[in-house]
Amino acid sequence: MEESDSQLGVVSYGLYLPAGFESAEEIARRSGLSRNQVVEELGLEGKCLPSAEDLPVVMAVKAAREALKRAPDIDAEKIDVVIWTGEEYKDYICQTAGIRVQEEVGARNAWAFDLIGQGTTSLVGLRTAQGLMIGDSSVRTVLLAGGTRNIDLVDYSNPHTRWMLPASASGAALLLRRRHTCNRLLGTDFSVDPEMADEVYVPGGGTVMPFSQENLGTEAMFFRVNHPREMESYLSERMAPRIVDLIRKTMTKAGFAGDVPDYLALRHLCPKERAKVLGELKLRAESTDALTDIGHHGPNDVIISLERGVKRKFIKKGSRVMLVSVGIGFTYGAALIQWGD
Fold it and tell me: Fewer Cβ in 10 A, N or C end of the chain?
């Protein structure tokens, strides 16, 4: 196998953000917090508020179309694989969302399937696309697309899931191509804390607690934290060090041991934890985006931050861009991209 067979590049990306907006004041009113708590503790000036039409798959399709629009040289019918990289919570239960995206964008000749990686799914999608290209020479072009509106699953009044209040809604997509010489994927790495697997979930709607008249509209339909004290300790003591360690491991695997990325496309974090990550890596504030004005978008955070870095010219030709995210489970993912030629 030639080295170039394992290389893929990001041809383009697409985003869709709902027009609705929920301010820090409104979030404070609904949650019983003060505005200062929402801003200073949660890092949230406001977030996107989806309409009834802003469904996960619908938003993903809009983002995918934007990615294709930005890549006029790639026709949708030339896409070989479509991978759903959004949240598990989709328009319908047991829906293969990747196939719906495939049809809507006109990728008639593609194979499509869904991934579930919680907040890291976009990064798992990058690694999966690379593996497909390595293992099958016919796979040349891959579309990653996903939507999220886990905002529906957060009970604003539950103090144990207060850290999930930044949850928002969006669609995002990445168009990838084998041997694309721009925006090349240099390396990925992943890690999990399996003991945290069942600490956060929505109890209603699964086989343990199927939908019924008794649980519809109750707290069973929202995220639950099984051990609040342990979760608080985990978030404040273990998450930031795990992120820093993963970034360093990914840099080392890519051949840059001891270096730090030029730009960090990091998922939304509370200000205290974000400061820990930047401080440990000795990165300046302009080396990332706090996403304080739009909230947390699960696996889409890294793509939103990437676009902001490009638009604000923090990401330049040759920049080493590290995409890093975290999802409940708890699962961590990172991907290093060399931006430009």
Answer: N
Residues 146 and 241 in one domain: no
Same domain, 168 and 202: no
Number of domains the chain contains: 2
Model-wide pTM > 0.90: yes
| Alpha-carbon distances of 314 from 50, 114, 318, rounded to whole Å | 29, 32, 11
Domain final residue, candidates 158, 180, 202: 180
DSSP codes joined into one string, 207-225: SSS---TTTTTSGGGS-EE
For residues 18 and 36, state if they share a domain. yes
Half-sphere exposure in the Cβ direction for 137 (13 Å, CA): 4
pLDDT tens for each residue of 207-253: 999 999 999 989 999 999 999 999 999 999 999 999 999 999 999 99
Residues 6+ apart with CB under 8 A from 131: none
CB 321 within 8 A of CB 337: yes
**CB proximity list for 214: less than 8 A, separation 6 or greater:** none
> How many alpha carbons fall within 13 Å on the CB side of residue 338?
15
Same domain, 282 and 267: yes
Kindly compute the dihedral angle of the four CA atoms of residues 268, 173, 82, 202, in this order, to the nearest 10 degrees: 30
Q: Which CATH number fits the domain that encloses residue 282?
A: 3.40.47.10
Q: Are residues 100 and 238 in the same domain?
A: no
**Same-domain pairing of 157 and 262:** no
Residues 44, 28 contacting (CB under 8 angstroms):
no
For residues 32 and 168, state if they share a domain. Answer: yes
Domain hosting 59: range is: 3-180
Amino acid at site 328:
I
Encoded tokens for 86: 């959004």
Half-sphere exposure for 21 (CA within 13 Å, toward CB): 10
